Structure formats: structure tokens, C-alpha cells
């Protein structure tokens, strides 16, 4: 992918530029003080249809309804017989007042349609969905999977509609919870990226920005739909989910083989990653984590980093190729046809994750998770491998930082700290769950078979760490930290 030339114009919101490394990117700051501009952003939109009630659907429907008030009607569309109907009714969407209806009826009646059903369902039903869209409608996506699928099957979006995306950098429950905190805490919310794929009406950019502001995003960054799905699908198959899963499983076994008890092995692997490592990176960046260490701990970090980085670079490059080629998208579509017969099993019954339940239950203020330097080095080495793959592929700095670092330490890892990595792997989107099951073992095996023996045999090439301290990502993360939401991610 060539580096996209990104800039946009808006007459409704205030665009500003931020310096990220050696580049400049345009952003829009959000905030509730901008809600009175939303009618202008959604000019010509009388009804927004929110289709689906998975992770993002409940949050986005409620946030939009609360932000827009009476200026635009927000209607939830569900398939006939959906088991989610009761949940939608419980938060105030009702057939009686026209705010809840059958999905295709809602699509046909809406001026802006936010398609938040699963990736597999989009791939299965896109022809019917496109047929229901009226000319001049704005089709909104929160993930670029459908673009990738259309390219794979040789089709395109309907030519007579806008196509935009707003992609919150957090799970739906957090999008909702932080929006509610935003009523009293300035700056609470989940940052988002936006993209304009087609602009038929001339209003696509304003509608996308209005959508993001209405969701409560403190900052909105620009990307392209292609760049979003390439980085997002690759990221969840690498650092964001499969990578962290493979890291901790490999480290848990390693530490036990070195004589730790199961509980201590869990603390030095999982608890270190989801606890102090993520908290420090969130506030101080990757370099701040390294500087938190002293003496021999820095040497241990550097060895672990240099051993893990090449494995991550190679494997993330393979993942990116698989996503870009369409192979990963096809695998998700094919799995959708198999799941009724072969449903995905859960991993949380394995011995390691039962130990984790006990360790989390025994947490106390006087027993903090350890900041293990070897674990920290492996984690950062894998993370930086993904950073460099996305850099090589020309992604915007803001997207690289969000998809490789910020979404991990500010959104997903805190959730895993509260509930467990196994819980996340067992309960995230179908697309992400499939990716974790496919790629986590690859991270586990390569770290176990190549990285750790290199450390033990003192055969680690120090070159990866030598490049670490001067890496451009550190300056990018310092700027992004200034745009960090003013509260920590909310975990119910």
C-alpha cells in the first residue's frame, strides 16, 4: 500500500494539524460543546439507521440518540426474530415509536445507514443491503472488512451512495461507558479514525465527522478504508490479540520450566503485561517503560527485545500479506459457513487460565504485579515488529500508533487485566476470535523455538535494540499521549 495523501475540508468543525514525527496530520477535536453543530453536519439526514446489536451497535445507537436529541431520529434495525430485540428495547428502542424495526425496512427508510452487523453477515448479505439503500444515502461502516471482501469477489459499493467509516479505537461497551463519563469528565471518550471512500452527496466528510463527534470521540484522525482494514485485521492477528495471547502462553511455560510456581509464572507473564507494562506504556510510552528499569534489568529487557523483534517482524509481515491478498478475509467468510456445524470452543478451561482466575481473585494493594524485564522486553519487541511492518506499508503515523500500541494498552489490555486474556479471546468478534486461534500459536511457537533459545545460548543479535531508542514511534506516542482520553478505559 502506498502512503495515502490525507487531508480534508470541513465547514462545520474546526480542523487543526498535529505534528507526528516528521509528518503533519489533520484532526478534529470532539467534545459536548460541539453537539449544537451536529444538525449542520447531518444536514439532509432525517433518520440514521443503526443496523446490528453486537459490540458496537448498542453503544453507537445510544450515543447518537443522546447526542442528536430531536434533530435526527436514530432507529435500530435488527433481523427478523433477532435475540437482541429485548436488549434494544431495554435501553429505549421500541417498535411502537418507530425507533426499532426490521433491518431491511430500516435500511430502506434511513438517510444514513450504519452497518454494524458481523463481518461474515456483511459478506453474506451485502447484495440485499445494497439493494435496499436509496440513492443519495450515506452508508457508514466501523470496519473496512466489507471493502476487502468486495475487492476479493470483484464487486464494488453502489455508485449512488456515500461510503464513509468511523472506527472507534475501543470496544463498544467502553465507547458507551466513557461517553456517559463525558457528561461530567471533560475529555472522556474513545478516539476514532474516519475515512471517506465515496462522496456522492458532497456531504460525506461532514457526516463522518459528525458521526464521530456524536459518538463522543475526543479526537478524530483521518485514514482510508483500505488502510483501516489492512491495519485493523493485521493488528488483531498480531499485537492486539493473537500476539499477546502467544506471548503470555510461551512465557508462562518458560517461567515454570525455570522453577516458578504456576501462580508466579502467571504473575510474571500475564499480570506483568496487562498490569504495569500496559499502564506505563499508556502514560510514558515504550521508551518510558525501558527507562523505568535499572541496571541489569535494562540488559535483560534489551536481550529479550532483540530476540523477540525479528520473530514478530517476520510473522507480522506474513499476516499483513495474508490480509492484503484476501486470504484472511476469505478464511473468515468460509468459517462463517462452518460455524453452525463446528462452533468455536473456549480456551478458558485450560490449566493456565484456571490459574489466572485464582491469581486475579487474590490480587491486593500490597501485592502488585511484578514489572518483569524479560516479559517487558518480549512484549515491546513484538509490538515494535508490528509498528515497523505498518511503517513499511505506508500507514499514517496516527493509525500505526493506535493499531499497534494505544488500542492495546489503553483499551484491550486493561479489559484483559480485569477479565482475563482467555475471556477476551473467547468473547470478542468472530473475526478476531478466528484470527487469534489461527495466529497465536505461531507467535507462541516462534518465540519458544527461536527467540528464547537465542537468549539462553547467548546468540542474540543486538541490532534490533540498537535501533529502538531513536525510533520515530516514540515522538509519535508522546504527541498521542497528549490526546489521550482524560480517564482510563472503563471496564464494567
From TrEMBL:
Q: Where does Mg(2+) 1 bind?
A: 232, 236
Query: Residue limits of the KARI C-terminal knotted domain?
Result: 224-366, 388-492
The residues that the entry says bind substrate are: 429
Top-level lineage group: Bacteria
The family database entries (Pfam families) matched by this protein are listed as:
KARI_C, KARI_N
Q: Which pathway does it serve?
A: Amino-acid biosynthesis; L-isoleucine biosynthesis; L-isoleucine from 2-oxobutanoate: step 2/4; Amino-acid biosynthesis; L-valine biosynthesis; L-valine from pyruvate: step 2/4
Question: Where's the KARI N-terminal Rossmann domain?
Answer: 28-227
Q: Provide this UniProt record's keywords sorted from A to Z.
A: Amino-acid biosynthesis, Branched-chain amino acid biosynthesis, Magnesium, Metal-binding, Oxidoreductase
Q: Which cofactor does it need?
A: Mg(2+)
- Annotated Mg(2+) 2 binding lies at 232, 403, 407
By its UniProt entry, which SUPFAM superfamilies does this protein fall under?
6-phosphogluconate dehydrogenase C-terminal domain-like, NAD(P)-binding Rossmann-fold domains
Q: Which InterPro entries match?
A: 6-PGluconate_DH-like_C_sf, 6PGD_dom2, KARI, KARI_C, KARI_N, NAD(P)-bd_dom_sf
Q: Which PROSITE patterns match?
A: KARI_C, KARI_N
User: Which PANTHER family does the protein's record reference?
Assistant: KETOL-ACID REDUCTOISOMERASE, MITOCHONDRIAL
Per the similarity annotation, which family is this?
Belongs to the ketol-acid reductoisomerase family.
Q: What is this protein called?
A: Acetohydroxy-acid isomeroreductase
Look up and give the organism this protein is from.
Streptomyces violaceorubidus
Amino acid at each position: 500500500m502506498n502512503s495515502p495523501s490525507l487531508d480534508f475540508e470541513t465547514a462545520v468543525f474546526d480542523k487543526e494539524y498535529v505534528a507526528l514525527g516528521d509528518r503533519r496530520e489533520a484532526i478534529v477535536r470532539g467534545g459536548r460543546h460541539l453537539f449544537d453543530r451536529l444538525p449542520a453536519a447531518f444536514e439532509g439526514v432525517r433518520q440514521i439507521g443503526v443496523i446490528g446489536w453486537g459490540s458496537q451497535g448498542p453503544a453507537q445507537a445510544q450515543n447518537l440518540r443522546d447526542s442528536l436529541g430531536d434533530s435526527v431520529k436514530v432507529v435500530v434495525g435488527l433481523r427478523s426474530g433477532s435475540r437482541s430485540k429485548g436488549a434494544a428495547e431495554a435501553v429505549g428502542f421500541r417498535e411502537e415509536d418507530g425507533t426499532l424495526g426490521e433491518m431491511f425496512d430500516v435500511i430502506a427508510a434511513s438517510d444514513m445507514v450504519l452497518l454494524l452487523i458481523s463481518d461474515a453477515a456483511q459478506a453474506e448479505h451485502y447484495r440485499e443491503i445494497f439493494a435496499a439503500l436509496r440513492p443519495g444515502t450515506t452508508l457508514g461502516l466501523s470496519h473496512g472488512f466489507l471493502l476487502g471482501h468486495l475487492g476479493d469477489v470483484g464487486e464494488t459499493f453502489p455508485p449512488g451512495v456515500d461510503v464513509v467509516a468511523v472506527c472507534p479505537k475501543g470496544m463498544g461497551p467502553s465507547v458507551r461507558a466513557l461517553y456517559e463519563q463525558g457528561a461530567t469528565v471533560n475529555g472522556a471518550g474513545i478516539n476514532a479514525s474516519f475515512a471517506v471512500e465515496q462522496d456522492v452527496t458532497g456531504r460525506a466528510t461532514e457526516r463522518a465527522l459528525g458521526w464521530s463527534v456524536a459518538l463522543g470521540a475526543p479526537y478524530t484522525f483521518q485514514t482510508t478504508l483500505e488502510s483501516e482494514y489492512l491495519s485493523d485485521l493485521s493488528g488483531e492477528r498480531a499485537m492486539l490479540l493473537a500476539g499477546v495471547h502467544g506471548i503470555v502462553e510461551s512465557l508462562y511455560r518458560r517461567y515454570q520450566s525455570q522453577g516458578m510456581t504456576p501462580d508466579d509464572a502467571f504473575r510474571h507473564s500475564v499480570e506483568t503485561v496487562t498490569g504495569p507494562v500496559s499502564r506505563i506504556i499508556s502514560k510514558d510510552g515504550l521508551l518510558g517503560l525501558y527507562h523505568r528499569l535499572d541496571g541489569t534489568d535494562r540488559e535483560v529487557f534489551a536481550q529479550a527485545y532483540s530476540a523477540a523483534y525479528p520473530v514478530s517482524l517476520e510473522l507480522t509481515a506474513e499476516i499483513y500479506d495474508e490480509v492484503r491478498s484476501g486470504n484472511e478475509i476469505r478464511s473468515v467468510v468460509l468459517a462463517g459457513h462452518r460455524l453452525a456445524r463446528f462452533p468455536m470452543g473456549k480456551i478458558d478451561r485450560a490449566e493456565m487460565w484456571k490459574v489466572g482466575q485464582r491469581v486475579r481473585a487474590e490480587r491486593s494493594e500490597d501485592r502488585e504485579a511484578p514489572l518483569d524485564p524479560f516479559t517487558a522486553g518480549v512484549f515491546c519487541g513484538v509490538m515494535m515488529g508490528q509498528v515497523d511492518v505498518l511503517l513499511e506499508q505506508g500507514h499514517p503515523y496516527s493509525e500505526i500508533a493506535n493499531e499497534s500500541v494505544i488500542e492495546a494498552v489503553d483499551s484491550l489490555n486493561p479489559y484483559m487485566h480485569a477479565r482475563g486474556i482467555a475471556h477476551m479471546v473467547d468473547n470478542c468478534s468472530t473475526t478476531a476470535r478466528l484470527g487469534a486461534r489461527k495466529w497465536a500459536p505461531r507467535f507462541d511457537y516462534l518465540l519458544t523455538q527461536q527467540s528464547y533459545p537465542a537468549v539462553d545460548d547467548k546468540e542474540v543479535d543486538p541490532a534490533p535494540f540498537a535501533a529502538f531508542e531513536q525510533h520515530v514511534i516514540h515522538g509519535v506516542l508522546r504527541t498521542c499521549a497528549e490526546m489521550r482520553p482524560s480517564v482510563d478505559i472503563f471496564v464494567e
